[in-house]
Specification:
heterodimer, A: 337 residues, mainly alpha, Cytochrome Bc1 Complex, Chain D, domain 2, two-stranded antiparallel sheet, two-stranded antiparallel ribbon, 13 helices, globular, B: 339 residues, mainly beta, Neuraminidase, five-stranded mixed β-sheet
Chain lengths: 337, 339
């Protein structure tokens, strides 16, 4: 495929997926079941910006040794996570937390497991500059980009200037904002298609919304409250990861991490902020036991009376009911040279 | 179809908070309180009743003779709320049914054991908390509420019906209801606000002049700016409108003398941003949020007979306070808003 045609085709697919036309910079239409998506006023979604952000997202040249891209740890083929317990960065360095999925990250008011960044624009540069992850200063990243003719032209076209840290973040964020999953069997069932869920999934749905207390945190269209809770994970360690506490210094936030979305949860194993639970069955068992006791354990986590069949049905609902046929399986674009 | 109509009718309009504080200086009219959490003005007398929550009592004072209070109801059970900071709480929301009948929302018992208590406050001597005229509740764990209900933050009354902003089942976010005219009033789950809004924690509550139930949905204390202003029909429980306010944690709502709506924002995430706000809204046009005064962890408000706004404020222990000081930082402040 000729190099000039490829971006156009890719962009057209992307615009269609995000509900954008070439002239339309309004917030994208979202899949069935998702709430309206707000977009920062100073970073409207445009097709050209999204296409640029997509290239940057997949480009390993934004890491010190050209081995790691955003997509390395947030791989569309692996639920926009990496399928491993922890994120692995340059030189094989392994972090202490799992790579959270990018799916529906557009809805988080606070990003990262501990909420240390606001919105996607505030998050996008963090991993590039992190010495364990991509280990490139933003100054270096921008210098690299501005030496690549294809990027230089696109930044000029989209932002009217060469790449800067701010525009780099805006472009990546704009792309990430299109990575949405909705229109799952659960949404169709709720919209009236009673054949959309199997009987087991329907039973599991009832358990999810009632007896299992899941929606205390995993409520709403994104199946997450976007807030921070202590589920006890890792709190029995000698030196536990204090999570949100490191940001707020509020004791009540010790051991709290952002509630992940449950959409596409069947694709994003292993689970929890430290990837310590391998399967959804393990996750359900953790909550049935009432989490791991510690002084800041969330009050919404307590022992549940779910028998084996109810637990199995609950897992079926999570896997079957929240996995969309229109999963955002996006392939890496051809990158500018 | 009904659901679709409801959602179509539901307005969700984002607004920007005007944080430039209005020229309104809070004046302390009662101090030395321990986590004051509720406030109500007695009909006919204009006396102000306050939940001195961590002290386990309700006190009253005359706004014309500030800084002096007398005990009205004492010995409420006390428990703690939060995991750091942790606050001791006892009686919470207050509302008068009539001059002599005060309804008190409890916060000192466990979820599923908590009570709504009704007192005759016509006498001069303090009443023990367990000497209530009527006990309503508890709403125990079961099909309606997975944990049972508790922490009755705020109470609003329309006719003989009392509405209670409750904490308990976080999958529901109940506004409870009880008929005070019944022989044996019972607490019932009335509006599942979380199911209606997708957001946690109904806390502030008021009754609009058109009869709608107005609920301040606090949202998550760890998420900034997510509080909602919502309106429900008391007839069919439907959500008539919801508005983003930009406030962090709406803790109280009240209508002023000229039908202006006021809210207090506790602002868990950053107490410096808390305060008294005016919410100018209608069901069609959205809401604009204007800061009237900055306050250190305000919890509830009521409009005095003089038209002034009285707000309960947790406050903070002064950095230079002596370690053995028993002075509590809670206050009631008086604010005059001049729109």
């Amino acid at each position: 495929m000729p190099r000039l045609i490829a971006p156009v085709v890719v962009s057209a697919i992307l615009f269609s997926a995000a509900g954008l036309s070439a002239q339309d910079s309004s917030p994208p239409k979202v899949p069935l079941g998702l709430p309206p998506l707000s977009v920062p006023k100073d970073n409207p979604q445009t097709p050209a910006k999204i296409a640029l952000g997509k290239q940057l997202y997949f480009d390993k040249r934004l890491s010190r040794d050209n081995t790691v891209a955003c997509a390395s740890c947030h791989d569309p083929a692996k639920g926009w996570s990496n399928g491993e317990r922890f994120a692995t960065g340059v030189r094989g360095q392994v972090g202490g937390r799992s790579a959270p999925t990018i799916i529906n990250a557009a809805y988080w008011p606070l990003q990262f497991w501990d909420g240390r960044a606001k919105h996607l624009e505030g998050q996008a540069l963090g991993p590039i500059a992190n010495s364990i992850e991509m280990d490139l200063t933003i100054k270096e990243a921008v210098e690299r980009l501005n030496k690549i003719e294809g990027y230089k032209k696109q930044f000029q076209a989209v932002f009217g200037s060469d790449a800067t840290g701010e525009t780099l973040a805006k472009a990546i964020a704009s792309f990430e904002r299109t990575v949405l999953s909705g229109d799952a069997p659960y949404d169709r069932f709720k919209a009236g298609d009673k054949s959309a869920l199997s009987e087991a999934a329907q039973r599991g749905m009832t358990v999810f919304f009632k007896k299992a207390n899941c929606t205390a945190c995993h409520g709403g269209g994104n199946f997450s409250d976007g807030a921070f809770h202590n589920a006890g994970i890792g709190m029995d360690a000698k030196e536990p990861d204090v999570g949100r506490f490191a940001v707020t210094k509020l004791l009540g936030d010790r051991g709290s991490f952002r509630t992940p979305t449950l959409r596409e949860i069947g694709r994003t194993a292993p689970y929890m902020h430290d990837g310590s639970l391998k399967t959804l069955e393990d996750v359900v068992e953790h909550y049935v036991k009432g989490g791991i006791k510690n002084p800041q354990l969330d009050e919404e986590i307590f022992s549940l009376r779910l028998d084996a069949k109810q637990q199995a049905d609950l897992v079926t609902f999570l896997k079957e009911g929240l996995s969309s046929k229109s999963y955002p399986m996006i392939k890496a674009p051809e990158l500018p040279k | 179809m009904r659901t679709i109509i409801l959602f179509a009718a539901t307005l969700l309009i984002a607004i920007a908070v005007n944080t430039a504080a209005h020229a309104a200086d809070p004046v302390v009219v009662l101090k030395g309180l321990d986590n004051p959490c509720g406030i109500a003005v007695q009909p006919e007398t204009g006396l102000i009743f306050v939940s001195d929550s961590a002290a386990g009592k309700v006190v009253k004072f005359d706004p014309k003779k500030p800084l002096t209070s007398t005990d009205v109801i004492t010995d409420f059970p006390i428990s703690s709320y939060g995991k750091g900071p942790e606050y001791a709480i006892g009686p919470l929301g207050l509302a008068f049914l009539d001059k002599n009948t005060l309804v008190v929302g409890g916060g000192g018992l466990d979820d599923g054991a908590e009570l709504l208590r009704v007192y005759d406050v016509s006498g001069d001597k303090p009443i023990k908390a367990d000497k209530m005229k009527t006990k309503i509740g508890p709403l125990t764990a079961g099909d309606v509420s997975i944990k049972g209900e508790g922490n009755f933050y705020a109470v609003a009354i329309a006719g003989n019906t009392v509405y209670v902003a409750s904490n308990g089942d976080d999958t529901k976010g109940w506004v409870l209801r009880a008929d005070l005219g019944a022989d044996s009033p019972k607490l019932e789950g009335f509006i599942a606000t979380k199911e209606a809004t997708g957001l946690d924690a109904p806390v502030g509550i008021a009754i609009a002049s058109n009869g709608l139930i107005v609920v301040g949905q606090m949202g998550e204390i760890s998420v900034p700016g997510d509080s909602l202003l919502t309106y429900y029909s008391p007839k069919d429980k439907t959500l008539r409108a919801k508005f983003k306010t930009g406030l962090h944690d709406i803790a109280g709502l009240a209508y002023g003398k000229t039908n202006l709506l006021y809210a207090v924002d506790f602002a868990w995430i950053d107490a410096k941003q808390g305060g008294l706000f005016r919410l100018d809204s209608d069901l069609k046009g959205g809401v604009s949020t204007k800061k009237i005064a900055g306050l250190d962890k305000p919890t509830a408000l009521a409009i005095g007979a003089d038209g002034a706004i009285y707000v309960t404020v947790f406050g903070s222990v002064k950095k230079d306070a002596k370690k053995d000081s028993k002075e509590k930082p809670g206050t009631v402040v008086k604010i005059i808003d001049t729109p």
